[in-house]
Q: What sequence folds into this?
């Protein structure tokens, strides 16, 4: 007997909270906080655009409506990635 998984593997990522301070992202078993001070692209964005997030590869997050790409390392350690959009 030959068993194969149906469909493709997908990673689950979701925005769990948007507050006046920043955005909370749940990726696998990690909850990540993105303060607006370090991630200004989200501050004035409509909620629907913030909620539309994808994880095309493990640890890489993409907001297609905002054209924002972030890696998990840049979220966990924003001080290592000082360049910000104006």
A:
């Amino acid at each position: 007997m030959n068993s194969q998984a149906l469909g493709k593997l997908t990673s689950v990522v979701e925005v769990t909270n948007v507050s006046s301070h920043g955005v909370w992202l749940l990726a696998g078993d990690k909850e990540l906080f993105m303060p607006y001070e370090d991630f200004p692209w989200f501050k004035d964005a409509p909620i629907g655009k913030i909620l539309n997030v994808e994880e095309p590869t493990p640890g890489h997050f993409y907001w297609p409506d905002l054209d924002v790409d972030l890696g998990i390392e840049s979220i966990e350690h924003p001080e290592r990635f000082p360049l910000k959009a104006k």
Observations:
- The mean pLDDT is 88.
- Strands lie at 13-18, 22-27, 30-35, 54-57, 60-63, 68-71.
